[in-house]
Specification:
The structure is a single chain. This protein is of the alpha/beta class. 35% of the residues lie in helices and 19% in strands. It has 15 helices and 15 strands. The strands form two sheets. It has a nine-stranded mixed beta sheet, with helices on both faces. The chain has a six-stranded parallel beta sheet with strand order 3-2-1-4-5-6, with helices on both faces. The chain is globular, with a radius of gyration of 24 Å. The model has no long low-confidence stretch (mean pLDDT 92). The structure holds NADP nicotinamide-adenine-dinucleotide phosphate. The site of NADP nicotinamide-adenine-dinucleotide phosphate has 23 residues, from helix 1. Its EC number is 1.1.1.49. InterPro entries: G6P_DH, G6P_DH_AS, G6P_DH_C, G6P_DH_NAD-bd, NAD(P)-bd_dom_sf. Pathway: Carbohydrate degradation; pentose phosphate pathway; D-ribulose 5-phosphate from D-glucose 6-phosphate (oxidative stage): step 1/3.
Length: 484
Amino acid sequence: MVARVIPVDPFDLVIFGGTGDLARRKILPGLFRRYRSGQMPDGSRIIGAARSDLDGAGYRKMIADAIAEFGGDEAGDQDCLSKFLTCLDYVPIDAKGTGGWSELAQLVRKDVVQAFYFSVAPSLFGDLAERLHTNGIASANSRIVVEKPFGRDLESARALNRTLATHFDESQIYRIDHYLGKETVQNLMAVRFGNVLFEPLWNNHYVDHIQITVAETVSVAGRGAYYDRSGAMRDMVQNHLMQLLCLIAMEPPSQFGADAVRDEKLKVIRALQPVDAHHIVRGQYDAGPDGKSYREDAENPRSFTESFIAMKCHIANWRWADVPFYLRTGKRLKARSSEITVVFKDLGHSIFEGDEARHRNILSIRLQPNEGMDLQVTIKEPGPGGMRLIDVPLDMTFADALGDKEVEVADAYERLIMDVIRGNQTLFMRGDEVEAAWRWTDPLIEGWEARNDVPKLYDAGSAGPEDAMMLMHRDNRRWRDIKA
Ligand code: NAP
């Protein structure tokens, strides 16, 4: 199957922080892949901007090296790479200074789509927004892309929204959450709203509970100073897990459009009930044979920050009354795996004599690795011996089903950047959504800070603290195994 390429207009994309880790590891290798697949029209340009004293040639060399390191197999296409590099330019600019802005003003064209990617610390967003205006660079048609974290609580998120709103309309602001750019996350909506099969069952009459797990094997080493001020709740739950929760729980939007989808997500966040402290488990990884402890990695021997969190939440509406949503995420866990699991209720009555087992349909949606889905169904065990039932997975790994050689599964970043160029905000968070998410998380964080809650230690390479297992066992349920 050949991927359908949706054409875009030529554009100028300015990447503030164009020399940083995110730009070199994700943004530019992603743009190179889009260029290679013919999605970057002729005449488009990418302009890096940061304080480093580079010229265009120096920047092109830096990006060629980055693509060689992070660009995967496609990086070997030297012809294409040379052509891509001719689209790149660079302007030295300090977001807080005055130098470089007039050069940038001369470079950025007014008659093409203009996008400004703020791939810098959020403390610089206001300076960039203001200078783009005072120097006459941005216009009413410009788009800005802002990175996470979007605030560290409701107050700071509001302040950030106000700052951006001083210079840009909400329709120009693209708050990126790269989880929403993942193929399977979008497939979640296709499965729910493109099939007649699931939606009638998608409610508290048929669903027993839902689990969302985002497990990482990496430690916080190298970014401990940032992470220690944040923790799993701010770094993962408030944004990525909440977005997944919204997509799984929202009502069908009237159409697949930016405001229709975001209105429905907002309703889910607003319907989230406060979480009882007994339904939250915070953990910190301990030292192991192949790694240091969280406190050593974070270089804070007295840190109470969580590198793991598990929680049980409820959505107070008709569809989801009494259906628990169990969320779990952490670092240094046994495998890198992100999965959403919908566990359906037991059969009310079995007609098969002697079959005592508890058969359940389970739909699991794997976000990574091996993006795909499987649906556990109950069938007759083959062979003689009467009607013995077994549960088997109907597995659909997308790469197998669609042919991994032929379908280009775009990385989340490149997909989202092309959506910015197309002016499609559906997969970006709206300001009110972000604020609503903080409004729900703030009291939980304040609660454990007030209690001086000490995170439970867990072994690196495990599934997290024992208390997280108990959170489900108490309800006579169990987490899905974390496996790669
Ligand atoms: P980074 O590696 O520290 O890069 C920061 C960039 O900002 C560099 O290009 C730096 O270049 C530039 N910069 C710093 N101060 C500046 C100033 N005053 N004026 C102009 N440019 C300035 O950070 P990063 O990891 O790329 O992260 C960038 C943003 O993305 C952050 O908001 C981060 O939270 C977010 N993010 C990153 C990742 C990731 O995987 N890295 C993932 C999610 C979100 P100079 O020093 O040359 O100025």
